[in-house]
């Protein structure tokens, strides 16, 4: 058991090193962090489109928001909590708004840190029905997930890597240090 | 961890590690593979931009570019993905001009009321010719997004 764990430590260490090296190759792009392409040169919009000048450039809208190095280069959770943006919660009058403050900690993470899933950061944006029961069962451990499946776009990977911060940010999910965590795995008591 | 630096056999331990724990090895290898496969050319669009081009170009108009970043500044995800019933899977919704004119999908807001109306064709139909339906910059839900 301990032998495998040690090997895994090695493996993780060297793989991360390799990942870092490979990342260097992409650096010219990564350096653009905090920078946004104008619509006329983003490779998606037609610069000759008749209404192109009526559309807003990302830099104009987002440069004042809390910064991130990846995705939209915006730390959306903070942008919302600190009042930089006030996105509407509903457009139909009868819709109920529910925010749930419940953290869940997962421990099947190999040599990575434990995963902390925060309901609050999610329910500030999403409805319960966006996840339950479509993606996740409403019970700790009732949903079988592995990192492979997440990387394939399932479970957490349905949003993370598509619209929410990308899966390259390991430590934003793997955020709990197993050696200092003294509580119980699973649903955390509310503070 | 401290004896890592002095260990001359680390490369071999990778291989051994891969053999002793296959699924972990597969995971790491695929991570590496994915990193290598990510195109190094210019990034396309803003992260999470969606291209909708099932019919548009065939019917003689530009592909539609839907920007997530622009809309999430104004609306929670749940407005579209719960109240208005957009499935969270590119291509899973049958979005066409008839449904939109009928007040569904984009047409729930782009009426001249919540947002400007459908007469501004070129604000939605703004894409370069030849684009395929999909989510840009990040990934389709089929792998990790990069930048």
Topology:
The complex is a heterodimer of chains A (191) and B (147).
Chain A: H1 2-30, H2 58-62, H3 76-81, E1 103-106, E2 114-118, H4 119-123, H5 128-131, H6 147-151, H7 170-173, E3 174-176, E4 186-187
Antiparallel strand pairs in A: 1-2, 1-4, 2-3
Chain B: H1 10-20, H2 22-37, E1 50-52, E2 64-66, H3 68-72, H4 77-83, H5 97-101, H6 121-124, E3 134-135
Task: Supply the CATH architecture of the largest domain in chain B.
Answer: Alpha-Beta Complex
Instruction: Give the helix/strand class of chain A.
Output: alpha+beta
Largest interface: A-B, 75 and 78 residues
Q: Output the radius of gyration of chain B.
A: 22 Å
Largest sheet of chain A: 4 strands, antiparallel
Question: Which CATH architecture of the largest domain in chain A?
Answer: Alpha-Beta Complex
Question: How would you state the average pLDDT of chain A, rounded?
Answer: 89
CATH class membership of the largest domain in chain A: Alpha Beta
How many structural domains of chain B? 2
**Total of helices of chain A:** 7
* Shape verdict of chain B: globular
Helix content of chain B: 25-40%
Query: Strand share of the residues of chain A?
Result: 5-15%
Number of strands of chain A: 4
The CATH superfamily of the largest domain in chain A is known as: Cytochrome C3
Would you identify the regions of chain A where 5 or more consecutive residues have pLDDT less than 50? Answer: 27-34
Overall radius of gyration of chain A: 20 Å
Counting helices, strands and paired strands, the structural category of chain B is mainly alpha
């Amino acid at each position: 058991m301990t032998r495998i764990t040690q090997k895994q430590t090695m493996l993780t260490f060297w793989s991360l090193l390799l990942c870092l090296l490979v990342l260097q190759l992409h650096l010219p792009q990564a350096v653009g962090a905090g920078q946004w392409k104008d619509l006329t040169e983003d490779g998606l919009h037609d610069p000759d489109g008749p209404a192109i000048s009526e559309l807003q450039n990302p830099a104009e809208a987002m440069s004042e928001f809390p910064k991130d190095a990846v995705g939209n280069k915006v730390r959306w959770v903070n942008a919302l909590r600190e009042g930089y943006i006030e996105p509407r919660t509903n457009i139909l009058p009868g819709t109920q708004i529910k925010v749930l403050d419940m953290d869940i900690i997962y421990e099947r993470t190999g040599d990575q840190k434990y995963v902390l899933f925060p309901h609050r950061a999610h329910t500030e944006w999403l409805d319960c029905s966006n996840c339950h029961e479509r993606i996740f069962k409403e019970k700790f451990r009732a949903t079988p997930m592995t990192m492979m499946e997440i990387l394939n776009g399932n479970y957490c990977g349905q949003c993370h890597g598509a619209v929410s911060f990308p899966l390259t940010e390991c430590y934003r999910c793997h955020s709990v240090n197993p050696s200092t965590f003294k509580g119980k795995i699973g649903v955390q008591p509310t503070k | 961890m401290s004896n890592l630096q002095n260990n001359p056999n680390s490369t071999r331990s990778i291989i051994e590690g891969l053999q002793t724990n296959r699924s972990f090895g597969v995971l790491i290898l695929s991570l590496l593979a994915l990193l290598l496969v990510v195109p190094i050319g210019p990034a396309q669009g803003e992260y999470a931009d969606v291209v909708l081009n099932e019919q548009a170009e065939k019917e003689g108009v530009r592909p539609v570019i839907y920007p997530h970043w622009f809309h999430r500044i104004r609306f929670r995800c749940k407005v579209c993905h719960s109240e208005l019933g957009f499935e969270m899977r590119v291509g899973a919704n049958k979005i066409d001009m008839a449904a939109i004119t009928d007040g569904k999908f984009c047409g729930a807001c782009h009426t001249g009321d919540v947002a400007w109306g459908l007469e501004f064709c070129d604000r939605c139909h703004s894409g370069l010719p030849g684009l395929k339906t999909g989510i840009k910059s990040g990934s389709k839900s089929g792998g990790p997004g990069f930048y």
